[in-house]
Structures are given as C-alpha cells and as structure tokens.
Amino acid sequence: MAAIIFDLDGTLLDSAPDIHAALNAALAPYERSVSLEQARGFIGRGAPVLVSRARAALDLDDSLQDPILADFLDRYETAVALTQPYPGALEALDTVAARGHTMAICTNKPIGPARFVAAHFGLDTRMRAMFGGDSLATRKPDPEMLHATMATLGAETCLYVGDSETDCETARAADVPFVLFTEGYRHTPPEALPHAAAFGDWAQFPDLAERVLMSG
C-alpha cells in the first residue's frame, strides 16, 4: 500500500501554545515577549528560524541568536502541557493504518522534542519513521528530508500532508501530491497553495486520502 507522510506542528498537533511559552521564557531575560499569534507566524522553518524571526520582530541583536535558541530548545525539549492533537486526528490515523497504509512524520521540529511529544500522544507507535529538523543537514522546504522518509519506508507512492507554505513547497520540490490541512499555521489563502486536496476536519481525511491515492 501507499505511504502517507505527515507534518507535525499545525497538522497533527496544535503545539503553538507550548512553542509560545518556551519562546517567551527564553526572551524573558531581555525583557521581551511575543503574542501567541506572532509565535504562530514564526513556526514552520525550524527552531533557528523561529528564534531569528522573533528577534527581528523585537529588534534584538544578532549576537543573541545562539543564547536565545539554546534556552528555547532546552525548555522546548519536553514541552507538552499546552499541546493537543487536532480533534479527530488520532482516530483518522488509526483508520488509515487499518486500511494498510504505512505512515511517517517529516517535520522541521527538532527530533528530540518531536520524539518526546510523539511518544506523549501515542504517535510513535502509529508511525514507521520520523525525521526532524536536525535529522539531516537540510530542512524543509528542501526535499531531502521527505525523500529520506520515503526511502526509509520503502515507498514509491506517497502523499505528504501538511498545513503550511513550507509543506507545500516541500511536496512540490519532492514531486509528491500535497494534501493541505486548512486549520494549521499557514498565512496564504488555501486556494493560493497548490494542492491535490484540502480538508479542515480530520474525520474527512481517510476517505480523502484514498481518493487522492487512487487518482494518482
């Protein structure tokens, strides 16, 4: 059967509140903070870019990048208290698995926090593989991570499911169909992002994925 590969933050999990809390804790020594909405806007290209975007918004010097990033990562490593799966996501994964498809995660989230939060919510037992933002030398939207995930699964046919512009670019660069989850952290209107299908309710996903796979 085909493989279905998922982004994590903003797709399977609403983790922005934990990211926001860890980021503000790392910014606190500099008497700065960002709103939850700002933090959502910084998500998608990995932790270094998240911190860089926050610094730029707050006019903090480049020399503070490394200490803020280190503090953020230390706090974020086990941050799960404010994170929740999107409604119906876990049930949809179980339906997909019951239909015989293999699944994996391909995320720009650092692999340590990704594995921790995946284990916390039982995603680790549902996924055959997981690649994080520091698993390889490149991050999304470079297609290398998605290609590596596919190779690990031994998949020739796959879908990539994500919520953001970065995910769309990754799928396009990897030449795989992109399925857009519309309730995540994107900024661009859905119609402006090339996609094979889109959904906002995880209950719709298993049948939608089957249709996209059959059409391919």
UniProtKB/TrEMBL annotation:
Keywords: Carbohydrate metabolism, Hydrolase, Magnesium, Metal-binding. It comes from the Bacteria. One of its GO terms (biological process) is carbohydrate metabolic process. It catalyses: 2-phosphoglycolate + H2O = glycolate + phosphate. It is an enzyme of class 3 (hydrolase). Its cofactor is Mg(2+). The keyword Hydrolase applies. One of its GO terms (molecular function) is phosphoglycolate phosphatase activity. Mg(2+) binds at D7, D9, D163. The active site is at D7. GO terms for cellular component: cytosol. Coiled coil: none annotated. Pathway: Organic acid metabolism; glycolate biosynthesis; glycolate from 2-phosphoglycolate: step 1/1. Its EC number is 3.1.3.18. Belongs to the HAD-like hydrolase superfamily. CbbY/CbbZ/Gph/YieH family. Specifically catalyzes the dephosphorylation of 2-phosphoglycolate. Is involved in the dissimilation of the intracellular 2-phosphoglycolate formed during the DNA repair of 3'-phosphoglycolate ends, a major class of DNA lesions induced by oxidative stress. NCBIfam families: HAD-SF-IA-v1, PGP_bact. This is Phosphoglycolate phosphatase. It comes from Palleronia pelagia.
